[in-house]
Amino acid sequence: MSELKVGVLSCSGEECLGGTISRLATRQVLEELKMVTTVTLCLPLYLAGGQEERNFAKVFPTISVDGCDKLCAKRSTEKYSGKITGFIDVSKIIGKENALNTKIVRNKDLTDEHLQMVDDVASEIVKMISQMSPDSYEGKSFRGCSCGSE
């Protein structure tokens, strides 16, 4: 059985709180929770034609974490890499009004309530990852990713 590696493709929307929450929650999973080998995929690079990003998502289980119900990360992954393993719509967790808030978008403006939203979204990412199996990509080969996967 292979080691489970999971790609997490986070919203890159910087104009609303939902995008900020999605990026912070993704970083929390990658840097603090480290339950499996997780790799963040860069949405702007992905959209610009980054083949390493797209190839990773074709082979390894990948989750999108979208800041709002436009689901840009999810749609992009499905367009360029095929069916996504799972997706999280942050606005369903923190509320659409919060997610679309354009007044609070930077880390320095976040309150304890916002940091709790980050924890809640990170918890959903962890829950989704914990339901995955390494067998979901066993036997596939992958080369050419900057994350060090072979």
Compact description:
It is built from seven helices and four strands, in the order E-H-E-H-H-E-H-E-H-H-H. With 150 residues, the chain is of the alpha/beta class. The radius of gyration is 15 Å and the shape is globular.
What key attributes describe this structure?
150 residues; alpha/beta; Rossmann fold; four-stranded parallel beta sheet; 7 helices; globular
Provide the structure class.
alpha/beta
CATH topology-level name: Rossmann fold
Order of helices and strands: EHEHHEHEHHH
Total discrete domains: 1
How far is the N terminus from the C terminus? Answer: 15 Å
How would you characterize this protein structure?
- The structure is a single chain.
- The chain has 150 residues and is an alpha/beta fold.
- The protein has a single domain (5-128), classed as Rossmann fold.
- Helix content is 46%, strand content 13%.
- The chain has 7 helices and 4 strands; from the N terminus they run E-H-E-H-H-E-H-E-H-H-H.
- It has a 4-stranded parallel β-sheet with strand order 2-1-3-4, with helices on both faces.
- Strand 3, helix 4 and strand 4 (86-89) form a beta-alpha-beta unit.
- It is globular, with a radius of gyration of 15 Å.
- The model is unreliable at 139-150 (pLDDT under 50).
